């Protein structure tokens, strides 16, 4: 057992507020850090104490591990919750936290480092029993002839990915061997520039897959459980827009099968904390692509369908407590959908920072709003444009869609532009309402909207 009383929340916005709430539920003292641009954030008054750690630029505040560790020492915390984004999957930061004698709310830095290396993650998860796509077992060789021979084995089309990447950055789709050498060269350049890691790998490319992910909770006593699956296929440029649970249109027993494999794999590799195993699903098969070692933006849809509080579970696991439930105790009820509300231009998707002149969130049965917005809040231009998550829970998918439409119609936000109208339009689309769209759906639909602006 590890005594944790004070938790530093190394993040901002809605997720900092979400984590502060969980700390209060658990009887822990949350402490806050913020940049100079963020002194007016809504969660800071809930904190036991707060500290301004640097200027607006994330590189000099939320991404500066040394500053955060100095704040942790000054504020005398026992643990650090990194939230998502920023330093949440940075193994060097996790290691520095451990070396400072503090607890990082997440897996050990060793596990984080292995899973953060996508080539290593693929090898570890394949060895632990997860189905992977045909691919290069290890890094692609430098020699173009050797690389071409290897890729011939995999088959075309294939996709080149950066081992240090993830989330869709630094990828190249290659349909023919003639394009291979050029694709490898440009992918390698990008990988070096963006991730300081030249290693690339290749995988068979799936053209019309769905993005399905499994939520895991794993304690320090070797017990792991999967607590549901999410469908995150509605995305544009690797930014998810809508997520839901359970997954529509895939038999429950197929989901349970892959969920069970994920829990077993996580126990096997010594994973601890909350984690998400990402899969592509096409033609009835799941294929592991990567594992996220952080709390995810879309975790609320799993909370709404299971009744669990994933952030409380994270804190409890970090304190060394065993999971409070067994796999057989997990029951999911109804259907949950999350719409990510971004402060962005509705047509060109450019960020739309500025003063929120009014904010009236929706409510009622089954409606949850995770947001740091308030009337008068100024959305700074320096960070991600996510300003609210609207989550609804209904008896079934059709009921959840009805509740989401009503909630979207009810929201009032003025002063900034948002994607609320896009969400409202999407929820009337036959493709979306039928369920089971693939990851290309939104891009195609937006092209259609662009050609047909008013309906
Ligand atoms: C793929 C893929 C198809 N085949 N891997 C995108 C995010 C990252 N987590 C993995 N991604 C993908 N990996 C194989 N083997 C399709 C995607 C993908 C995608 C790829 C190119 C352009 C847009 C995309 C949108 C969603 C998923």
Number of strands: 20
Q: Taking Cα atoms only, what radius of gyration do you get, to the nearest Å?
A: 22 Å
Question: How would you classify the helix and strand content by structural class?
Answer: alpha+beta
Q: Order the strands across the largest sheet as they lie in space.
A: 13-12-9-10-11-14-19-17
- In CATH terms, the superfamily of the largest domain is ATP-grasp fold, B domain
Assembly of the depicted chains: single chain
Q: How many structural domains?
A: 3
Folded structure, characterized:
It catalyses: N(6)-biotinyl-L-lysyl-[protein] + hydrogencarbonate + ATP = N(6)-carboxybiotinyl-L-lysyl-[protein] + ADP + phosphate + H(+). Residues 3-447 form the Biotin carboxylation domain. Its EC number is 6.3.4.14. Strand 9 (210-218) and strand 10 (224-236) form a beta hairpin. This protein has three domains: 6-105, Rossmann fold (3-Layer(aba) Sandwich); 134-204, ATP-grasp fold, A domain (Dna Ligase, domain 1); 210-451, ATP-grasp fold, B domain (D-amino Acid Aminotransferase, Chain A, domain 1, 2-Layer Sandwich), CATH 3.30.470. The radius of gyration is 22 Å and the shape is globular. The strands form five sheets. The chain has an eight-stranded antiparallel β-sheet with strand order 13-12-9-10-11-14-19-17, with helices on both faces. Strands 3-2-1-4-5 form a five-stranded parallel β-sheet. The model has no long low-confidence stretch (mean pLDDT 97). Helix 3 (91-99) runs antiparallel to helix 4 (109-116). The chain has helices at 13-25, 65-74, 91-99, 109-116, 118-127, 144-154, 180-195, 252-269, 299-306, 310-318, 397-410, 420-426, 430-434, 441-451, and strands spanning 6-9, 29-35, 49-54, 79-81, 103-104, 158-162, 172-174, 200-204, 210-218, 224-236, 239-245, 273-282, 285-292, 335-342, 354-355, 358-360, 367-371, 378-379, 386-394, 412-414. The chain has 14 helices and 20 strands. With 455 residues, the protein is α+β, with helices and mostly antiparallel strands. The structure holds ligand MV4.
